[in-house]
Amino acid sequence: MQNVSVAVIPGDGIGNETVRAGRRVLDAAAELDGGIKFEYTEFEWGCAYYLRHGEMAPKGFLNTLANFDTILLGAVGYPGVPDHVSLWGLLLPIRRGFEQYVNLRPVRILRGVVSPLRGRNPGDVNFVCIRENTEGEYSNMGGRLHAGLPHEVVVQNTVFTRVGTERIIRYAYQLAANAPRKRLCGATKSNGINYTMPYWDEIFNEIGEREFPEVNRWLCHIDALAANFVLKPDEFDVVVASNLFGDILTDLGGAIMGSIGMAASANINPERRYPSMFEPVHGSAPDIAGRGIANPVGQIWSVSLMLEHLGRADLGKAVLDAVEDVLEEGRVRTPDLGGRNTTDEMTDAVIARLAQRL
Ligand code: ATP
Ligand code: MG
Fold this sequence. Notes:
By secondary structure, the protein is an alpha/beta fold. It contains 11 helices and 12 strands. Helix 6 (196-211) links the parallel strand 8 and strand 9 (216-221).
């Protein structure tokens, strides 16, 4: 029996509703399989905690989390607490402290979903974005001089280290080497950004040439690449991008998939020195929080990624297949997908399908 300890951080808003859906699906998969078992510990950290205690989580929370095999996160951020407080107070310390330098986000039109891209059907679009998750443009370094004066100057530094750049690009190559068409696209902007991006390109080409000659690699400027996400999304197997570029591209990827409520993400520490963290791409959605109508698919897909990371790709695939069965059947849908069902009803439907598949 594989026993897995899961730290659960529901966070804010609909995170509380979707995390419950994720846990229920994990438990259903575990029970049907019989070879894996999950033990959860919930932590009520986030913006509500901040309003009571003046911090997003208690001091030393990373030490607490380090003892778990994996982390399941809902969503963090709520009106009344500035974004930089919620981000730098909880999410970013976990990503950086646990060296979760890979942010993996699948971009895929699921069966039964209508993409806003005209003429694109399930099967046409199926690739993975790898976003650098610890450095780059989100460096927290910079400064502001002469505030409010006509000669005011503001600088934000971008940091690309050799270790940080090589490890994310190598990870993306490894994924691409296992993809059917072995295609890897690197996002760049080396014409306008003339120190960091040429460096990124250099390492991209070096590692490709030396270690992965079998991978078909190409670099694409971020502006053209964004256009190609819309015009030629079938071209991609794996896309690797810096922190900022990856952030923007994956939101676009989520939009292509039909609803932000369906996109999932994994924050991975590939060396497994620290726990990895799995979460939906969407935020806390204050506009629909507390009504029980959030789409649980992004969170359920995130537990599918978790299962894969735990060495149970078979279970992860069964979960995503079950989600697609429900979407294709089209009977049970949350309002963002044009239906009238609740989060719980959609989760029930996925679990029922899962039971047929396992
Ligand atoms: P954050 O800053 O945390 O990324 P945000 O305000 O930018 O959050 P979301 O919280 O993701 O973005 O919400 C954007 C819109 O998408 C909202 O209208 C929200 O209701 C909707 N939305 C987000 N997630 C879901 C979901 N799981 N199901 C249905 N609608 C969702
Ligand atoms: Mg946002």
